[in-house]
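Onboarding guide, step 5: your first structure request.
Type a short instruction followed by the sequence, for example:

Predict the 3D structure of this protein.
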Amino acid sequence: MLERLNQAMEHIERRLGQDIEAGELARIAATSEYHLRRMFSALAGMPLSEYIRRRRLTLAGAEVLAGRETLLDIAVRYGYGSGEAFARAFRAMHGIGPGEARRTRAELSSQPRMAFRLTVEGSSSMRYRVVDKAEFTVVGLKTRVPLVHSGPNQAIVDFVRGIDPQTLERLEKLSDQEPHGIVAVCDDLDPSRAEGTELDYHHGVITSAPAPEGTTALTVPAGAWAVFTTSGPVPQAIQNLWRDAFTEWFPSNPYRGRPGPEILRTRLSPDRTEADAELWLPVEPEHG
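The system replies with structure tokens like these:
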């Protein structure tokens, strides 16, 4: 998987002055566009579209400083329809407009080329299983929140704190299948997975029971799920579980992510410093 992903990175470099289609990159990487975007975001720490934009503006910055071509020629080469659009994007990355940068020979930002390598430490093994699950329903409470790449998502924290404990008790009684108990479910994420884009957050249970009045129901089609488990300090153990799934498990196993909700079940210790966590990610065979 990583070798094919690096071939896609080479394709990006060859076409920075042309349109780059995520579907073509997915074909080069021999995977789905959905999984490519998800893998890249997890490995690189930024959306694929943001990386391409930053690489283009890195090369454009060098050409601006070289001074051999007009700013409009450079803008058009890197896909900007007007000098104004190019100037806005240039300033957003470099903190200075292209004209001023050329006049003052300013220091500019740079996005290095990325290549991916698998580091095998061998000191621990991931606990996982693959489960085929029939259609089920997430019943609970739902809100729309921004995507946060690192640190706590305050919108989710505030939403959960505002839920009546008695409501959670009633919901928990409806849980009748894995993963059992109250779960956190993220769904309908923007394909770019860019920071600040929005997603649906459900706080509820997995059940076959009808949704009570005042709750929401998310129907999830049948399919395969990779289930990862961990125990350890909060929040490090849970953050590492997400990271390891994409940086270690997917590159080493014949599965890819498929569209669908991502489900996290967490059980905190009495002092809330340790947790047992179970992460459910929708998957399909890589060459299925």
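Each response can be followed by summary notes, for example: The chain has a mean pLDDT of 91.
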